[in-house]
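Now for one specimen:
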Amino acid sequence: MKAAFIQETGPADKIIYGELPTPTPAGTQVRIKVGAVAVNPIDTYIRSGIVAANLPKPYIVGCDVAGEVEAVGPEVKGLKLGDRVWGTNQGLQGRQGTFAEQIVVDESWLYSTPAGVSDEAAAAVSLVGITAHLGLFRDAKLKAGETIFIRGGTGGVGAMVVQMAKAVGARVITTAGSADKAALAKELGADHVIEYRTQKLEDELKKVAPAGVQVWWETLNEPDFDLAVNQLAARGRLIVMAGRQARPIFPVGPFYVKGCSMHGFAMFNATPDEQRQCSVDINRWLSEGKLKARIDRVLPLSEAAAAHRLQEESTSQKSGALSGKIVLKP
């Protein structure tokens, strides 16, 4: 089978597109005929070695997948041949990745793909969708009628947060770097969009949320906690999911006096049961059209190295070259 893999960590040029043995499912594993995969920033961090990981050799890159079950292990109970499935959290914690024509995945990490939802869409929402759901509902416990601020509402995770928050009846405030992205954020469901290049964030927040926000979703690597805590309402919840090396100043006094809480998380630490709970809502919202994949482009799997370079340019180098996910197809 063809696969995109590395023998050692390093730049995107280390990715080899070539032949590997077709895997055989064992135990509770299933083999998937891959229909689509998606690129995430974490994929590039692991491939480059920025994030140290225990990698099999050769290591197939990638976390996300959607496709069709074509073989099952002897202990599989919930899936059968021909089932369409999607999943994420592969290529992590010693597991092989997804960028191949066929992969084996334990059935605990897989969810049924709803009728009418393409493999491209399912792959594109998998990691970012589960990340958004965990932060919003497991940790922040967002409820209908509450106000949430998301920094960057058209990014990979941000677009999911905006749509999910609206799906449960929250009031959504977000930021965008241009008029085009502001219009997109509105299409996704944002009630108020602040163009941070031309508007002062703090001033605009005071206008649209004078009583503060119940949830502040932070995406910056170097967050301004003074601003965030100042804008939180009493018992507000602050979500952080980025900034591995960040050591920002934190205003302890105002934070505890208002009874606020902060939740930091990485989705790959969530258990299979926690992620499966997320998949139930994600599948329902995909079927209802309340959650839509943000896909920038679809490329052949053979261009995995180019896709990684483009992802790095857009995230690490902050080029803003992407407006959605890169999806690859075998």
